[in-house]
Amino acid sequence: MDGLTDSLSFFFKKYFLKGLPVYNKHNFSRFHADSVCKASNRRPSIYIPTREYPSEQIIVTEKTNILLRYLHQQWDKKNAGRKRDPDHAEGESAAPPRKMARTDSQELNNDAT
Asked: Closest Cα to residue 83, out of 75, 91, 104?
């Protein structure tokens, strides 16, 4: 019965490969069911750690997307110099203010009347 199942499986494999486009048909003609790799019978490889890590370390997944996190970091780096520092008062800033208050506005109003 084992020979019958092997021949049936070979027939189904041959039937499946029958209509596929190939450059060289002889590549599939040399297929033998007995030559199938027996790698599935091996024991799976096991990871053996080389270092001991403390059990206090817990792996936690981040809730934010890695792309969004990267973009936020880049935006923060770019805009770090533009933000106003709340520790400095307005008078202590090194750059002069962009707009100056007019001190002569009352004089102009008095002259117009």
From this structure: 75
| Tokens standing for residue 5 | 């199942």
**Token pair of 64 as six digits:** 């934010």
What does DSSP assign to residue 54? P
Phi and psi, residue 8, nearest 5°: -65, -45
Instruction: Find out whether 36 and 18 touch, Cβ atoms under 8 Å.
Output: no
With CA atoms as reference, report the closest residue to 17 among 32, 3, 29, 1. 29
Q: What ranges in 1-113 are assigned the alpha helix state H? A: 2-17, 26-29, 66-79, 105-112
Q: What global pTM score does this model have?
A: 0.25
Q: What is the pLDDT of residues 37-48, one digit of tens each?
A: 555 667 778 888
Determine how many CB atoms are found less than 10 A away from the CB of residue 28.
Answer: 13
